[in-house]
Amino acid sequence: MPILSKLQIALNRCLPVLLALTLSTAAPACLAQPEFVLKPGTQTPASARNARVPQWRPNILMVMPNRGKDQEAIDSSLQEVHGEVVEKIGEGDMTVLMVKVEQQYFAEAERKLSQDKNFASVQRDLVYRTDAAVAAPVNDPYYASEWHLRALNVVNAWNVSQGGPIVIGVLDSGVNGSISELQGKTYSGYDAVTGVEGQRDVFGHGTMVSTTAAANTNNGVNTAAPARRAYIYPVRSGFSDGSISASAILKGVKRCGDLGIKIVNISANGSPPYSFANQSVNSVLHTYFRWFHDTKGGLIFNSAGNDHLRDTNALSSYLIVVSAIDNGGGLASFSTYGRPVWFTAPGTGIYCTSSAGRVGSASGTSFSCPLVASVAALVWGAKPSLTNVQVENILKSTCYKDSSRQVWTESYGYGMPNAEAALKAALGL
User: What is residue 193's DSSP assignment?
Assistant: First the structure.
């Protein structure tokens, strides 16, 4: 069953009338220029000693049993390290046990379970942070000021296609779907922290990310977004202090995969070497990332982070990491970069709407990431028969490269998406 059919009953409000076919017959001149050149992406590596070690939920280990291990052996191993199962996530080979271990036994339990043949993966329930600067409220119309639409060649892309009704799962602080920019655009959602259905934004970050990706467009209010016909499935995975937990992300990825959602955005990360790209630190999460990509045919977009550090973790085939550029075409002063980066996108002065309905100019890889996810949604919505790998390849092959025309760089990955070129490639035009 198509995702929109499966989720229709969960829509929190009636769908709006379909948007007009074009935003305007006379787009502002500043948005009509398709060519945007990236500067050569040469960076001086920052010291990894500046990296901030993430916190973790006290006394909790995320443990994946090995295939074929019987329950008695698993129970015996957990009892040996004074572990108590307080929650079970997933089933079969995707089973994750949330194991509570008192502090005096914690380090030893982590060591022993990591070496125990009964278990495939063991990791702490790390708590990361969202990757955004503070938004500055302003009060004037914003469409003509959205330089990122010009940079991504979105306005010209809309003359090719405005996409279709695809769903983007936003794993963040939650979403306020009642604001004008998201009315009729959000499903009821899921709270992965409390385990209940529904939507709310406990920090405000998730609403800003969602309007960046899929704001109501051509409605005479606030801002526009590349994937103007996309919908948002909110997954609250974070807390009121702006942090976000690994276990909630895991549950959010599983929920989106089970519902058939094909695009997930995670605008949060940790400092290298503790970023999501680190398969050792995030071994359990990576099992779910791989499952979402390889089994469910989806794409996960992840912000690179705002520490301006070089990430030496490997490029992943199932975690699309996005860096940020400024409006001069160079790597943003705050953006983390390095081996895991797939793409770059505008990340400074991005207009979006807060959970209170106010528009602000925000900066961070938190916003470059949903812009790339939004372009992917625009392409995939225009041609739903594409596979996730085909969407990846289309974005890679049609990107704006830096001025040296390198295939891949640590600053920009494969480059910055060109929405018009990507749509034409997808549709065979």
Answer: T
